[in-house]
Amino acid sequence: MSLLRNLGIWVLSGLQKLGRANLFLFHVVAGFPGLLLRFRLLIAQMYALGVLSILLIGVSGLFVGMVLGLQGYNVLTDFDAEQTLGVLVAASLVRELGPVVTALLFAGRAGSALTAEIGLMKATEQLSGMEMMAVDPFKRVVAPRFLAGLLSMPLLAALFSMVGVMGGYFVGVGLLGVDEGAFWGQMEAKIDFEEDIVNGVIKSVVFGLIVTWIAVFEGYDAIPTAEGVSRATTRSVVYSAFAVLGSDFVLTALMLRGDS
Amino acid sequence: MMASRPDPEILVSIRNLTFSRGERKIFDDVDLDIRRGKITAIMGPSGTGKTTLLKLIGGQLRPERGVIVFDGKNVHALGLRELYALRRRMGMLFQTGALLTDLNVFENVAFPIREHTRLPEAMVRTLVLMKLQAVGLRGARDLMPGQLSGGMARRVALARAIALDPTMIMYDEPFTGQDPISLGVLVKLIRDLNRSLGLTSVLVSHDVHETISIADYVYLISEGKVVGQGTPEDMDHSASGYVGQFIHGLADGPVPFHYPTGVDYATDLFGDALAQAGKGTAS
User: Is residue A198 part of a domain?
Assistant: First the structure.
């Protein structure tokens, strides 16, 4: 009986939180027009979230691409098909690894920072203080961070894929001796702009929305104590990971169905 | 409604205010008046919801019942835009200062000016320096909030609170955790600003000595009720046992020294049998 009750409580509080998160999103989107007047805030956040993530994303992309080159070559040589290595590397990156791994790294690097920053601003009464100064924290604090995350994610995912392809090229062509012309030529022939690249971009936009939304909401919804903020930060990363991987499956299923 | 009776002397009038957090009643049918141009102190033990009261006046929280009227306007009947317009006329000094940690002192004070006006940069600079001069921190304009002591942070927050020349300013525990010198500075600032700027001040505190020394009128709140009110002299000579205990800081009185328990001391220490035996020998 008490198990049932706890399940009920859990479901209800979960639904409540989802409702709060949706209202929150409306509030934030309503704050977007005001950003035209405060363009500098947006630029500052783009720098903090996007530019400062470039090193992490770039290095990770390079290594992922290099590993893909090694592993792919290993399998493809068994079928004498190592010329298609470029296709394998590019398709994996553009379709899946670029958006997904970037989103996971972005959640760890930028999402957690967003949650902690907003949570601490709440804990130190900075948000409350703004409200009392008749400044809407949604417009001043949340909206620029949200939009900056939304814009940064696809750019970072594109960077990840690009650097990854370079990594695959270094390993495949440079180390393992795959023919350079075949590597690029096959890639150019087989990678489709709409089915691969556009779909990858759609994924990265959706993941950007999910990760940033979770991050700013968890920060804003955090219990305003040291412990509350630390838990919100953990939740932010964990929920982002679940939501990204889960929605990746749904998006992939939808996109592949369009293929056949 | 009682609150609609206009009295030009009264800036904020609170009638029948009731507010709960979960099961606990923070305010139970409270009536308060804040007079124009005066310093009104609201005192009470920790956890009586004094900060909550300020947030209710500022419209950040909604009362369950009752009305709060600020200068003829019912705070909780206003739309968001009107509420924001009203808040520009209130300054609030938070306990922690609530300075924006990513901006330096100058930018913190300039923040409300920049957000609400389109003044040229030179004018903003003049205004900010005037406000900083008023709290004695013109020299600290380039410091970051992390480099300030607690007392200095509160003074910067005070400069920021008066940046838009509000009608009323609310102080949330301004004296807590201050050394004697910054305490003296804050007491002097609150009194002087109230006089020189023609402000109305609401001061929430449990530091009896400092508060009594500057307040014009004192409300004492405990367990959700106003248990005493009057001028500082009235409070000092109050016949009420509770007011006396609070004002003079006595350890025992109507508020007992011991947190209530259901079990008497001997039983708690030695268990039933021994306590019975003890009683046996004693009788």
Answer: yes
